[in-house]
Amino acid sequence: MKNKKITHLLSLIGLVLFAAFFAGSDTQKKLPATTEQVKVGNYDFTPPFTDSAKSSKIAFALINPSFAPTFMWYNIDPFKKFCTSMGADFEELVIARGYSIRGPFASQGDMVYSDKSETDLALEPIIDISLDYSNLKCNTVKHYHFGLYGTSYYTYTYTYSGNLIIGGSINLTASETQTMEKLWKKNITLTSQTITIASTKEYNDCSVSTLVADVFGDPGVNNPIVTVLESYYQTIMNTAWKHLDPLEMATLKPQVDKIRAKKTY
Question: With the C-alpha atoms ordered 82, 169, 44, 125, is the resulting torsion angle positive or negative?
């Protein structure tokens, strides 16, 4: 009888330790609760006025904005929405300026012969955003676990904090559509801004040499960036409105005609 009781007790202890092992071995830690929501950027531009439809002598082939090839986060928010919103507003801007347009096109390669022959200039905005995160640091969060037979161990997650410097520019180019020879270029400088970020989530990996994509969905990182991008957006669109003056663009028409007069098919 005594042996049976001991065996039963050992079995119970074994079950408890077994359950504690699996409960403690769970590396999928629950993220700390936060009431802060991810901010969605308000990227919108309203033209100051509208010229008569097709009043300009220039016809544009409009190419959608894109990021410079070196920018690795072009396809995730908040940067993706920043770019796609700009494409819609550039179309509205160009039409409001009195130009006729074709497009918008995803790239120059999407233009067919009729698009090139029935327009004068291809307008292309290139977004060159820079992120300097050399002043960020990874903070280690230690998690204690109970293992089997009274053993224990640690796992680690990480948070980001520190200063992030955002800057860059937008390059606007206008090229003759049949040869793609650049005839006009404007650079819109985006004043560098330093923001403080502190991630509200924990991550399994942390690297200050290249930010993991998931971090941009973190309110503590996303929201300060969005505030800067909203400011940049208005700077870009208002400056582009001034640069795309029909009187200035009309001075390019003789150059377009000269290039086409020389071109042989």
Answer: negative
